[in-house]
């Protein structure tokens, strides 16, 4: 009898040992309360993950873009988050409903900070008010009024309709921290958030040590410790991974991607991010639609993708090709078709092999700056335009903020922009395509696009917002005003056993999760 | 000597004023501004209102001379202001970056001196022999290879293949070894040839010939006379190099994740972080004046004939 009991116990122990560790199997029962967002139940291993970051920011999440990093490190969370498909998902908040200019937000009642303090309406309101004061990008929050309804419900009333409030509350500058218990001048050493990890130590431009948040409201955290090393050079990051000193990093250079893909002991995951490569035409100088269309038909997106070997993916619009917002279609690559268009418009080839009309050679001034591979792409496009008989004059600027585009001293300008950080398209489309947009450097002015943008300002239905955004992009492509051609890839490189680092989310500020593990 | 030193120190004032004014002007004229750099750091569009509000809070809407005067007033009270990029006190940022740079400079210059002078002398004595030709070939290679290439090669061979050192050193003394080796290779490649040339030039002089004729031992001649007379040139070269190294070597610091002044100032230029750049310029102007002063004092000690 004793032997039988012992055998049963031994079998049970072996079975538990078999299913424990880094597994997303639903057979494992978590000891923590299940939550709506938890799709994996895994046992904590207490292991240490070593990761690298190429950029160093401080940890006061409300300031500047610091929140991108406190979120990446799993220290802070926001009321809502952006899903892999750009949808807005509940996170600390449960629901958000709108009536006129007032949004009512209900918080989850299980959320606590890493020090055990509860997250309630007054804490959240204080955070949003602080973010509104500290961050210049939070103007709408700064002007809003807040009202606490009960412990887990509060209202935000804005001066005008704010249909994108919930998606804007995914921005990490709205992270929720225990601000009452953090010294105002020492967030770097004292930050307290709701995330799966809490800060253990901070050494500026060197290393951050994170430990598991034992009080994490959303389930057990697998890892015990995370070391974040500051390694600004991508070659050094790659060699650190190869030597085994780090386990994962995001953003390898092009040459390293091929190296890691060829080695089974590493894993490379690529997802279209939210940074779009595109060119604009100066509508004041490039008045001939035939020329603009011919140029767009001469740009071979797959050549550009091959050139940048894994770091970008071809796109038709300003958003990921596999997302709802990216479902548009521009002129396809057809250099012979481009020539026919030019010839129909009265252009003829001269003795130098370039098209000319009325004795004037067609020469396009292309403005660009030499970073983010834009210089390589521009040289390739120059070559492709030459094959279509279009001459070019390259104008290189040392100006990463793109003020060279604001001068209007170009026919075609190349740039790369983040087109959304919240899953909504309005900010980018309005700034770059509206007649009054501050980044509409090509002076594009379409009645239809302006009308569609006006509708977007007040539209609250998310699927209708997607539809309007698609119509805007399609109009711009049909007008041959802007050529979107690629999205940068968010490339995560790791040891093959590392997983659950939000590899499939297009935004870089989602990285560490409670399920991140080494395996 | 005291009045000599005082005069040189007083020269600091017009030098700092001139250099900082020129730097401020060039930054002011450069395209873009700190507000844009700060708000566009992640490549997202921002509204004109946000830009204007940021410019206002940074004082960027003030006239150029008012901005410069405001900064200068702070300097007079040792307040270098706060960084436009992250609002940290500039003095703290510079101090934090200066220590790693001083460490790098000290060790690399010490080792360079210990290698370059003996080898330069050896090459001069064995002029055109195989040892001279061999070391010259090595120095040629050392000068030709770019510093970033040397850095990456060292990491690849020493850390990845031979596993003698970790790639990630996280501020420990192990982190000094490879950047120091890189700098020693770069600096020694130049200095060895310069020391050799100087020694050879001295050995061609008449006092050397007459000493030989009088029967003075070669070693005595070399170490008591030739080397002594070469020291002025050698000190000049090293003095200039110390100044350059203290300004930081951004590429090496980036590759080795060594948080020194070079990387700080290159990043600050990208961010249009005027207060940090101005603070750096003040410190470097002071450093160069002090180094030149030290060099001149050494001249006087070595050769009282120097005015």
UniProtKB/TrEMBL annotation, chain A:
The keyword Signal applies. The keyword Electron transport does not apply. Residues 89-439 form the Solute-binding protein family domain. It holds the Pfam family SBP_bac_5. It comes from the Bacteria. GO terms for biological process: peptide transport. One of its GO terms (cellular component) is periplasmic space. One of its GO terms (molecular function) is peptide transmembrane transporter activity. Residues 1-25 form the signal peptide. InterPro entries: Peptide/Ni-bd (IPR030678), SBP_5 (IPR039424), SBP_5_dom (IPR000914). Keywords: Signal. This is Peptide/nickel transport system substrate-binding protein. It comes from Anaeromicropila populeti.
UniProtKB/TrEMBL annotation, chain B:
Keywords: Cell membrane, Ion transport, Membrane, Nickel, Nickel transport, Transmembrane, Transmembrane helix, Transport. The keyword Transmembrane applies. Gene3D superfamilies: MetI-like (1.10.3720.10). Coiled coil: none annotated. Residues 98-295 form the ABC transmembrane type-1 domain. The chain crosses the membrane at residues 12-30, 104-125, 137-158, 164-186, 231-256, 276-295. One of its GO terms (cellular component) is plasma membrane. GO terms for molecular function: nickel cation transmembrane transporter activity. It is a multi-pass membrane protein. InterPro entries: BPD_transp_1_N, MetI-like, MetI-like_sf, Opp2B. Its main location: membrane. It is found in: Cell membrane. The complex is composed of two ATP-binding proteins (NikD and NikE), two transmembrane proteins (NikB and NikC) and a solute-binding protein (NikA). Belongs to the binding-protein-dependent transport system permease family. OppBC subfamily. NCBIfam families: Opp2B. This is Nickel import system permease protein NikB. The lineage of its organism: Bacteria, Bacillati, Bacillota, Clostridia, Lachnospirales.
């Amino acid at each position: 009898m004793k032997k039988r009991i012992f055998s049963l116990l031994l079998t049970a122990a072996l079975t538990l040992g078999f299913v424990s560790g880094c597994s997303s199997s639903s057979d494992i029962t978590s000891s923590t309360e299940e939550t709506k967002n938890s799709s994996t139940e895994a046992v904590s291993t207490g292991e240490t993950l070593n990761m690298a970051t190429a950029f160093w920011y401080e940890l006061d999440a409300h300031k500047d873009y610091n929140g991108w990093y406190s979120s990446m490190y799993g220290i802070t969370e926001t009321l809502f988050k952006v899903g892999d498909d750009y949808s807005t998902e509940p996170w600390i908040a449960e629901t958000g409903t709108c009536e006129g200019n007032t949004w009512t937000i209900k918080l989850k009642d299980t959320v606590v900070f890493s020090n055990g303090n509860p997250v309630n309406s007054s804490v959240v309101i204080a955070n949003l008010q602080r973010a509104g004061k500290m961050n210049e990008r939070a103007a709408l929050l700064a002007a809003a009024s807040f009202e606490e309804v009960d412990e887990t419900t509060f209202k935000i009333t804005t001066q005008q309709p704010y249909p994108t409030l919930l998606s804007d509350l995914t921005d990490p500058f709205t992270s929720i921290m225990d601000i009452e218990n953090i010294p105002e001048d020492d967030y770097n050493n004292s930050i307290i958030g709701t995330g799966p990890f809490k800060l253990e130590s901070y050494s500026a431009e060197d290393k951050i040590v994170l430990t598991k948040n034992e009080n994490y409201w959303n389930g057990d955290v697998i890892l015990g410790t995370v070391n974040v090393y500051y390694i600004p050079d991508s070659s050094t990051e790659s060699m650190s991974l190869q030597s085994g000193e780090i386990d994962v990093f995001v953003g390898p250079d092009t040459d390293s991607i091929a190296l890691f893909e060829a080695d089974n002991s590493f894993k490379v995951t690529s997802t279209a991010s939210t940074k779009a490569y595109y060119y604009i035409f100066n509508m004041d100088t490039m008045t001939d639609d035939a020329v603009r269309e011919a140029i767009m038909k001469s740009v071979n997106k797959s050549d550009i993708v091959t050139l940048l070997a894994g770091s970008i993916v071809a796109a038709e619009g300003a958003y990921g090709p596999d997302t709802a917002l990216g479902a548009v279609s521009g002129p396809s690559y057809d250099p012979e078709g481009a020539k026919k268009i030019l010839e129909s418009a009265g252009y003829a080839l001269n003795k130098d092999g370039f098209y000319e009309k009325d004795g004037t050679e067609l020469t396009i001034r292309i403005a660009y700056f030499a970073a983010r591979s834009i210089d390589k792409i521009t040289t390739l496009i120059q070559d492709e335009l030459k094959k279509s008989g279009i001459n070019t004059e390259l104008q290189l600027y040392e100006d990463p903020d793109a003020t060279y585009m604001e001068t209007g001293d170009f026919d075609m300008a190349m740039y790369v922009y983040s087109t959304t950080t919240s899953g909504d398209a309005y900010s980018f489309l309005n700034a770059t395509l509206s007649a009054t947009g501050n980044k509409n450097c090509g002076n594009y002015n379409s009645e239809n696009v302006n009308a569609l943008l006006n509708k977007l300002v007040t539209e609250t239905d998310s699927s209708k917002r997607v539809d309007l955004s698609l119509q805007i992009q399609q109009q711009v492509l049909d007008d041959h005003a802007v050529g979107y051609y690629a999205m940068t890839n968010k490339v995560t490189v790791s040891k093959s056993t590392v997983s659950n680092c939000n590899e499939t989310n297009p935004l870089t500020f989602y990285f560490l999760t409670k399920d991140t593990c080494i395996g | 000597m005291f009045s000599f030193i005082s005069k040189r120190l007083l020269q600091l004032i017009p030098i700092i004023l001139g250099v900082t004014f020129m730097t401020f002007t060039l930054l002011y004229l450069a395209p873009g501004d700190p507000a844009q750099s700060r708000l566009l750091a992640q490549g997202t569009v921002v509204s004109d209102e946000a830009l204007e509000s940021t410019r206002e809070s940074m004082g960027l809407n003030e006239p150029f001379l008012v901005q410069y005067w405001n900064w200068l007033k702070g300097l007079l009270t040792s307040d270098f202001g706060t960084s436009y990029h992250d609002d940290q006190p500039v003095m703290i940022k510079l101090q934090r970056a200066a220590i790693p740079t001083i460490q790098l400079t000290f060790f690399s210059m010490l080792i360079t001196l210990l290698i370059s002078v003996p080898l330069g002398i050896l090459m001069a004595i064995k002029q055109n022999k195989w040892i001279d030709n061999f070391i010259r070939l090595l120095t040629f290679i050392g000068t030709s290879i770019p510093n970033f290439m040397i850095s990456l090669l060292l990491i690849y061979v020493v850390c990845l293949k031979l596993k003698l050192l970790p790639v990630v050193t996280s501020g420990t003394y192990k982190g000094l070894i490879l950047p120091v080796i890189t700098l020693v290779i770069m600096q020694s490649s130049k200095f060895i040839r310069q020391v050799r040339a100087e020694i050879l030039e001295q050995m061609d002089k008449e006092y050397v010939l007459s000493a030989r004729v009088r029967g003075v031992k070669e070693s005595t001649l070399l170490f008591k006379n030739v080397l002594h007379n070469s020291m002025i040139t050698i000190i000049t070269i090293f003095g200039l190099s110390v100044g350059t190294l203290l300004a930081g070597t951004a590429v090496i610091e980036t590759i080795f994740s060594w948080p020194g002044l070079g990387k700080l100032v290159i990043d600050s230029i990208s961010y249009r972080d005027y207060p940090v750049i101005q603070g750096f310029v003040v410190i470097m102007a002071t450093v160069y004046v002090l180094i030149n002063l030290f060099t001149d004092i050494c001249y006087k000690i070595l050769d009282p004939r120097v005015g």
